[in-house]
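<backbone_tokenisation>
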Amino acid sequence: MNRQAISIFALGAISSLAASCAVIPPASPPAPVRYIDAHSHILAQMTPAEEVSLLRASGISAAVIMHPDIAAIDAMRAGNAGFIVPAISLARLPQMPGLHLGPDAAPAMARLADAGEACGFGEIPTRIVPRTEPTDDLSLLGPDRVAIYAAADARGLVVSMHVDIADPKVEASIARIARDYPRAKVVLAHSGWSAAPEVIARLMDAYPNVHGDLSVRLDPAGGLPMSVQPANSLPPGATNVISILQPDGTIQPAWRDLLLRHADRFLFAMDITDEQRPKFAQLLVATARKALGTLGPAAENAIAHGNAERLYAGCARGFAARD
């Protein structure tokens, strides 16, 4: 080998060695899981722009806003299409503006859905003032409410209901609704409020159209308003601790098992309301990320955003398209 060949060989060897020693840049961290708030409300003490700013700052990618006045939701949607998704609810108090329970409620909700102005029905309060029935189980089956379930069933829409399902008679009413209206996507606000996991499990095992949002249920254990209720205000056998989290922020074992078994039925939600919850929005998202992150990627993605996207799919005013 002559001197020139040796030089070329040496240069090649040095180049190969340098290439092998080159620093490989670290892989980019995975993008954080998107979180959609499947249940919040309009805040009377804020302007629409202020509330949207609060929601965006919490770290969510979208929110379902439930309100009895569709025009008020439209004001929030201005400039925020795809982030604010409208659901038409019912006024709980007589002095509240918007739609009230009565014979005209279901037809009005149906018209809004058919026009693409509302993507779902709810949150439907059970204890409307004045009460139409003496108990929650009977209220749920009142004719004006049944007409709403039928409208949701005919369109395959979400109907979200706030009701405490710890009472067996209330559980039976929910079972009847789910059975009689199988195309309605029944969402139990707060996953049945104080109901134990076995109650929700029975309903979900029996009826594939029963879902639960996790608003209030994912509050830090006993740490926020609405997380703990006076024991004497709840049905017999109900727990006064609404949150399903343990003090360390992990999910109680029975609830963890249920969330994994029915990961396609639960939805992350915050229930931002006019009380003290708005100031906790960022904490609620962070707490949920910690808790749901222990379930594994498939379950976390489903509960965080996938189930909400599926349930509200096809609505003209639905979530922004994603790659």
